[in-house]
Amino acid sequence: MTLTGFLSSGCSPKSLIIEEDILPGLASAIKVIALLSPIKNIDLEKAQFLCSLPKSLGLNPDNQEEITLNTGRFGPYLKCKNKSARIENIEEIFSIGLNRAITLIAEAKPGRMSSSIIKDLGEHPEDKKPVRVMKGQYGPYIKYKSLNATIPEEKDPTELSMEEALILIEKRKEYDKNKKTKKKKKGK
After folding, report:
1. Of the chain's two ends, which shows fewer C-beta atoms within 10 Å, N or C?
2. Is residue 50 part of a domain?
């Protein structure tokens, strides 16, 4: 069945979600169509627009990053670097322009800050796993396997050497070991 035939058949939004296997690759568009109830408001042009998402609206003049229009679990939204802005009026997804997008992004709060690498120190001498200096929400830290070792405030994370990192990793391992033995003693 084609998209045109599917839309013109007068299906209800619930049957659209059930029929996702008929139109592979259109799951997010179908869910947005389901949000835009009743289905008779959706014409072929709007359906094709929804299927074309994500769509670039242009560059944000504040940071020269691309602003993208997309749909997600909670409806339509804009994304620019680490900021997302929800589009409250679902119909606005079809007419939003760059100026409105810039305004919504400027008003949005930044999302959860992801960790980024400040410096790659190389491989650990024992098991050749990477040792990295990372930038985190609570300040810089050293990442080795699943262990995170805090870097003291007086140390510059960009100037940290592998030897200093190995000392901080060992201190963290010792701290974690002592913490576990205290829990065991408390439990008895």
Report:
1. C
2. no
